[in-house]
Amino acid sequence: MSIFPMKTTLRLLALVMLAFAAALTNTSCQTRLDPAGAYANNPTLYATDASITAAFAVLDVFMKFQHENRATLSPKVNEFADRTRRDAPQWAKSIVTLRDAYAASPTNENKVALNNVLRLVRVAITQASSYLVSQPVATPPTP
Amino acid sequence: MNPVLILGGVNAALTLLEQFAPALQAAVAKGEISAEQQTVVLARMDLIRSGKFFDQPHWQVPPPPAPPA
After folding, report:
1. Which residues contact A89 (CB under 8 A, 6 or more apart)?
2. What value does the mean pLDDT of chain A take?
3. Which of A52, A93, A126, B64 is deepest in the core (most CB within 10 A)?
4. Which residue of B has its CA nearest to A64?
């Protein structure tokens, strides 16, 4: 038996997801990079890629959690997760295309386009977190 | 209460902490991102770019439930 009630656990997970999404999608361009690293000469590109990978990592943790606990989560959480499974690969393609366009030509226009599509992923993370907090948990099926 | 679900939630939160502790620490402390950490980010980008990121079992869309007989 855990020391945490289930609702508290889901809130904890949601809060951690939101905190990571907020912290890592706002990685400062002024962060210093080891010059021997792959991004040594491009802190902006590092910040962009760190934001993208962090956002997908947060979604990944949610998906794994939902996959392992589908039977005990509410239908709304499961529907949201399945919709995200269908849409996320397309989001990734769009993000990578816009990221490459920004890397090749770091104009303000390209930055805005990239940020717009990244916002979609942030919305999904926020939605996942809010579902975990607000949705009642379904009764597990009896064996 | 379902102890499995509780442990799953705690484990998921810990996984995030474990994966991103170095980057988070560097971002918060405004420290230097090591070459190793940069390689990790680049490798994760490659996974997303190639689509292999979504090959994991928990990213597969489950088949629709069979209609009632």
Report:
1. B51, B54
2. 78
3. A52
4. B58
Taking the model in full, what pTM does it have? Answer: 0.74
With the CA atoms of A17, A18, A20 and A21 taken in that order, what torsion angle do they form, in degrees rounded to the nearest 10? 110
| Residue A76 CB contacts under 8 Å (≥ 6 apart), including other chains | A131, A135
List the single residue in B with minimal CA-CA distance to A40.
Answer: B35
Q: Which chain A residue has the Cα nearest residue B29?
A: A31
ipTM: 0.75
Q: Which of residues 13-32 of A touch B (CB under 8 A)?
A: 13, 16-17, 20, 23-24, 27-28, 30-32
Phi first, then psi: give them for residue A128, nearest 5 degrees: -60, -45
Selected for mutation to probe chain A from B19, B48, B50, B54 (highest A CB count within 10 Å) is B48
| DSSP single-letter state for residue B56 | S
Phi and psi for B67 in degrees, rounded to 5? -65, 150
